[in-house]
Structures are given as structure tokens and as C-alpha cells.
Write a structure and sequence with these properties.
277 residues, alpha+beta, Phosphatase 2c, domain 1, 5-stranded antiparallel β-sheet
Length: 277
């Protein structure tokens, strides 16, 4: 069966919010209009407010992750390239903290890499990735927090997370130690899917139903981003608010090439990367 590649629309917004004095969040979207055949990287990073230089940490992590992923250039599998990106970003932030002599620096990082008709999700921390499909909001990421651990251990019901007093206590973040183990998952995309990446300043004050409603009532990805941020502020978020919205349009066939593999092989990865080199 011929591979199919999605037409992608994306938009994003990151604001200080009504309480904080500076924005320690950072978002990443493709810099240029890109042909539908190429891989695309989207990400949200939320610098940890309790540590010094959270804004530096989030920006450094995203820049390092992105550049490391591109540098792999088809020399390894997609999942290994993503893991290497996280490991390199983690080391860079850790080393920067030592250079600045300001104690620990840290950030969350949730990244969606769309290659062919597959989504590779890379995740550390408590920013989130949502898939909106068929009128439902599905959280694709697991919160790396003490409360998240309680939910997975069935000591707390998921509907208590947003209001729990210890919701923001992280168990894992980029830059806090020399070694990091990210969550990397793979998902098959369908026409009409929306992906939403957001910091906890957004999802903590917005229900799953609100995410679905925003997508169903507004067609533009930029307007969806704006509406979600405005809703977070309206609901009195006490943090920075950042959103990236991705819409998966029509899936179009890839030009026939007998040398291409099934999307997991290096030949497929190398073919796609060459299109943007």
C-alpha cells in the first residue's frame, strides 16, 4: 500500500498570563512553509518557575532538541533520533545551569514530530499533548508529577488532577539531572485530527470538553490557539499560557518509489529528510 502524507496547518501562541511577571514558556513551530512530504516538528516547553532561569532552560531545550533531530539526518531510526535529541537537550540545560552558577535549571518538553502519516510524540514533564478526534479529547501524554503517579497507581481519580494541591510537583524534567528517560510513543494520524500541545497553565484550567468545543466551533488553527489562551486567562490561570494547534488535513499519496520502506525504516526517514536538506 502506498504511503500517505497529511497536509498540515498549524498555529500557536504563548503569553505571560495575568499573574507571572515573565514568560518562561517557549513554543516551536516550523519556520517556513513546508511541502507536505517532509517531517514537521512542533513543541511546547515550560521552564520550571521554582528554579532560576526557567525561560533560558525552555528556549535552550527546544533549540537543542530541534537541531539535534535535524543533525541525525536519517542515520538512525526516528525514535532513536528523538531520544538522542532529548538526551542532548537535557545535557545542555544541565551544563548551562552549572555555567551560570545559579542552582538547578529545568523545563518540561512535549514535542510532536509528524513524519508521513505517523505522529511521534516525545514527552518529559507535565505539559500535555491532546488528540481531538471524532468529538473526543484524548490525552496522549502522561504527567510526570507526583499526582500523575498517584493516578497511575489508582490512588487518585483522574478528575481530581486539576484541583490537587500538589499537581505541579514534577518527578521528571529536562536539565535537573545528568540522565533523562523520555516517553516516546507512535500514533497513526487520520484526516481531520487536531493535535493540541499546551503548558499546564492552559490544561489545568480547561476541561477536555472545552478543548473539543474550541476545535468544533472555530476552523482556523490560529483562532483555536487564541481561544484556548483566552479561556485559560478567563478561568484565572496563575501561570504562563502556551498552546500549539495542529490540524491534519487530507492525506495524499507519496510518489511511488520501490526503495521506500514502511515508515519505520531508515530509507523512508532518509528520503523525507532529503526533501528539506
Amino acid at each position: 500500500m502506498r504511503q500517505r502524507i497529511p497536509e498540515i496547518e498549524s498555529g500557536g501562541l504563548s503569553v505571560v498570563g495575568p499573574v507571572r511577571k515573565d514568560n518562561q514558556d517557549c513554543i516551536h513551530l516550523p519556520k517556513h512553509e513546508t511541502p507536505v512530504e517532509t517531517g514537521l516538528l512542533f513543541a511546547v516547553a515550560d521552564g520550571i518557575g521554582g528554579y532560576a532561569h526557567g525561560g533560558v532552560a525552555s528556549l535552550l531545550a527546544l533549540e537543542t532538541f530541534s537541531s539535534t533531530l535535524i543533525a541525525q539526518n536519517g542515520n538512525t531510526s526516528t525514535s532513536k533520533a528523538l531520544r538522542r535529541g532529548i538526551e542532548t537537550a537535557n545535557l545542555k540545560v544541565y551544563q548551562m545551569a552549572e555555567q551560570l552558577g545559579s542552582g538547578r535549571m529545568g523545563t518540561t518538553l512535549t514535542a510532536a514530530y509528524i513524519l508521513g502519516n505517523r505522529l511521534y510524540l516525545t514527552h518529559v514533564g507535565d505539559s500535555r499533548a491532546y488528540l481531538i478526534r471524532s468529538g473526543r479529547a484524548i490525552c496522549l501524554s502522561a504527567d510526570h508529577t507526583e499526582v500523575g503517579d498517584m493516578v497511575r497507581s489508582k490512588l487518585l481519580s483522574p478528575d481530581k488532577i486539576r484541583t490537587h494541591a500538589q499537581r505541579s510537583i514534577l518527578t521528571k524534567a529536562i536539565g535537573l539531572s545528568l540522565f533523562i528517560q523520555p516517553d516516546i510513543t507512535e500514533h497513526r494520524l487520520q484526516e481531520g485530527d487536531h493535535l493540541i500541545l499546551c503548558s499546564d497553565g492552559v490544561w489545568s484550567v480547561i476541561s477536555d470538553e472545552d478543548f473539543v468545543r474550541a476545535v468544533s466551533e472555530v476552523s482556523s488553527v490560529e483562532e483555536i490557539s487564541q481561544r484556548l489562551v483566552e479561556l485559560a486567562i478567563q478561568n484565572e490561570t496563575d501561570d504562563n499560557a502556551s498552546v500549539v494547534v495542529i490540524h491534519v488535513g487530507k492525506l495524499v499519496p507519496v510518489p511511488t518509489n520501490p526503495g521506500l520502506q514502511d515508515g519505520k525504516g531508515n530509507d523512508w526517514f532518509n528520503y523525507l529528510r532529503k526533501l528539506v536538506s
